[in-house]
Design brief:
It comes from Lophiostoma macrostomum CBS 122681. By secondary structure, this protein is α+β, with helices and mostly antiparallel strands. It folds into four domains: about 140 residues, Uridine Diphospho-n-acetylenolpyruvylglucosamine Reductase, domain 2 (2-Layer Sandwich); about 130 residues, Uridine Diphospho-n-acetylenolpyruvylglucosamine Reductase, domain 3 (2-Layer Sandwich), CATH 3.30.465.10; about 230 residues, 3-Layer(aba) Sandwich (Vanillyl-alcohol Oxidase, Chain A, domain 3), CATH 3.40.462; about 60 residues, Vanillyl-alcohol Oxidase, Chain A, domain 4, CATH 1.10.45.10. Helix content is about 30%, strand content about 15%. The chain contains 16 helices and 19 strands. Strands 12, 13, 14, 15, 16, 17, 18 and 19 form an eight-stranded antiparallel beta sheet that branches. Strand 5 and strand 6 form a beta hairpin. Helix 2 runs antiparallel to helix 3 and helix 12 packs antiparallel against helix 13. The structure holds adenosine-5'-diphosphate. Adenosine-5'-diphosphate binds next to strand 3, helix 5 and strand 10.
């Protein structure tokens, strides 16, 4: 038994901490994760501070001195200490904690901590003056997609969350809020409880992320308001030239200098709806963002299991009309039964002695001992409303799914207290939790990459994407953990590729698997909704209809807004003019080649 770890930070002490109600759970999760970790917490740095491209140490030092004069010495910190991967609640802002390439490769040169929007403007102007790339993060819990790592090594990370973490407004009547980048789902939820407001937030699987950062990266949650970007209303943005912009109704000044009273009520306002270009892009730094909240309501979680792997197309066909008719109350998840094994938090070695993917019959044997029983697919849904309305919704749902022979229906009361459904029931009623961290005990030093293609909610399409995943996970020898997040006409088919951070062979295979998944799905017409920064160029390159019209459009905007190319160059594959055609794109097998001693960039 490994010893207990020092307690995770509490929300009362630190903006990024965990609420008291979850302290014991967080401690247990941390102890478990560290007991499955055998790499040292940190190793001595092999390299000095990673300088921004084309910048001498002397020029860099001068620039840092100037920035420290503006922000205060303690608010600009050099990234020259040993790198610590930490864990979810104590994550680094220096690099990608789930590094795929060398830990020291995708690092920033320094971290800057602005306290106000005016200071963000100051940093942006400074970056233009000194030609130093900057990379904004909110809380940096974007694990599986690059974490806090800047795409261009040596960039200065603007860690917005540390000092800009106020809930600026919660409007109980309008059911909306305005937050700064450092407000986590935990913090927003706790504040709503403190004020006893009958409102729900919508949170992703883990509650420690930034409400604003997740929405900007177009993350999803699981209540009826699970599409986070679709449920935002109004943004305040610092543009790459330092100018301040308010979108939506915020562009119309309120009376006597007040915020516009409809800023959080009406999204598009007048003229082109510009908000979209500030999501998954490098066109601005979002310093405030409004969100709609959901009014508290009755809710009922449930689980349906299906017996055969081959039921998959029938399940998808049953889901479509239910989703399109809005019978399905939220963003339900369809998961393969393999996940029932790893959400227990037990390591793979508990279930299977080999290192190859767990054979189907071994999964079957263990599943038959679990509450789900021997099944193939597991559907987690939640219905909302009053008791009568929920009952009639459940009748329709049960009726639709019972056409699939052997489908079994469970309510939380039918399942043991430690079953995963109880955590889903919380998430699906807007209560942020930590349960999903249990995944990360699967292999020692576990890290993960997400592969996240979009498929229409149609059996023929979903089957193609699934078959590609089955085939390629087998080829590269990884367990397949698909979760389909159902949002009406489409499903986010998300697979979690789990690898050991200390094992170069696993990392190489994981990277090769990602690359082949992206390419193979694209050939069939399926693309990702989001990806890790190392694969951003490849994914962006698949959206190439009409001679890359979309990327040329993005580049036109980028060059107009950011002529010096200082803001997050390369994010989502959008490179400013200064960088284009100079070897910055990561394509082909460059990631695999960089693993185990190589370097991903710069290749100048
Ligand atoms: P979370 O902690 O919710 O996962 P992050 O802070 O990691 O969110 O943000 C995810 C990504 O979105 C970041 O890597 C960054 O590229 C982008 N991003 C986050 N916050 C902002 C912001 N305020 N302005 C512009 N881009 C942002």
């Amino acid at each position: 038994m490994s010893k207990a770890q020092p307690p995770p930070p509490a929300l009362t002490q630190r903006y990024s901490g965990v609420p008291d109600r979850l302290a014991a759970i967080a401690q247990a999760a941390k102890d478990k994760l560290y007991s499955n970790k055998n790499v040292p917490e940190s190793v001595p740095r092999r390299h000095d501070v990673r300088l921004p491209p084309d910048t001498t140490r002397d020029a860099f030092d001068k620039a840092i001195t100037a920035l420290r004069k503006d922000l205060g010495v303690e608010h600009v910190v050099l990234n020259d200490k040993p790198l610590v991967d930490g864990w979810y609640l104590e994550h680094p802002n220096t690099h990608d904690a789930f590094h795929v390439v060398d830990q020291e490769d995708l690092v920033c040169s320094a971290m800057a901590y602005p306290a106000t929007t005016a200071e963000v403007q100051t940093i942006v102007r400074w970056a233009n003056t000194y030609a130093i790339p900057i990379y904004p993060i909110s809380m940096g819990r974007n694990v599986g997609y690059g974490g806090t790592a800047p795409r261009v090594p040596g960039s200065v990370v603007i860690d917005l969350g540390k000092r800009m973490n106020r809930i600026l407004n919660i409007d109980g009547e309008n059911a909306s809020c305005v937050v700064e980048p450092g407000v986590s789902y935990f913090a927003l939820y706790e504040e709503i409880q403190r004020r006893s407001l009958p409102l729900w937030i919508d949170c992703p699987d883990l509650g420690g992320g930034s409400v604003l950062g997740n929405a900007v990266d177009r993350g999803v949650g699981y209540t009826p308001m699970g599409d986070h970007f679709a449920n935002h209303c109004g943004m305040e943005i610092v543009l790459p030239n330092g100018e301040l912009l308010r979108t939506g109704m915020g562009a119309l000044p309120g009376k006597d200098g007040a915020d516009n009273p409809t800023w959080q009520s009406f999204q598009p306002a007048y003229g082109p709806y510009s908000d979209g270009i500030f999501s998954q892009s490098n066109f601005g730094i979002v310093c405030q963002m409004g969100f709609w909240l959901m009014r508290e309501t009755g809710h009922q979680a449930y689980m349906i299991t299906f017996p055969r792997d081959e039921d998959f197309p029938q399940i998808v066909e049953a889901i479509r009309p239910l989703a399109q008719n809005r019978i399905l109350g939220n963003i339900p998840q369809l998961r393969h039964v393999a996940q029932e094994l790893n959400v227990t938090g037990l390591p793979k070695s508990h279930w299977y002695a080999g290192t190859a993917p767990i054979p189907r019959d071994v999964i079957r044997k263990h599943a038959s001992q679990l509450p789900c029983g021997d099944c193939s697919w597991v559907f987690y849904g939640t219905q909302y409303g009053d008791i009568t309305s929920i009952k009639s919704q459940l009748d329709i749902i049960q009726d639709a799914f019972s056409k699939i022979e052997g489908a079994k229906f469970f309510l939380p009361k039918d399942l043991p207290d430690d079953h995963y459904i109880h955590s889903r029931a919380l998430v699906c009623s807007g209560v942020p939790v930590l349960r999903e961290l249990d995944w990360l005990n699967w292999v020692p030093n576990c890290a993960h990459l997400f592969f996240s293609p979009i498929t229409p909610t149609r059996a023929a399409d979903a089957q193609i994407v699934h078959d590609i995943n089955v085939r390629l996970h087998k080829k590269y020898s990884f367990d397949l953990f698909p979760t389909l997040c159902v949002a009406g006409r489409e499903m986010h088919y998300i697979t979690n590729i789990l690898y050991d951070r200390s094992n170069d062979d696993e990392k190489r295979r994981a990277a090769a698997l990602m690359r082949e998944l992206i390419a193979t799905c694209a050939k069939e017409g399926y693309g990702e909704y989001r990806t890790h920064i190392l694969f951003a160029d490849q994914v962006a390159g698949t959206y190439n209809w009409n001679n890359n019209a979309l990327m040329r459009f993005n580049e036109t905007i980028k060059d107009a807004l950011d002529p010096n190319g200082i803001l997050a160059p390369g994010r989502n594959g959008i490179w400013p003019k200064k960088y284009r055609g100079k070897g910055w794109q990561i394509l082909g097998d460059e990631v695999e080649k960089a693993i185990g001693g190589g370097t991903i960039s710069p290749k100048l």
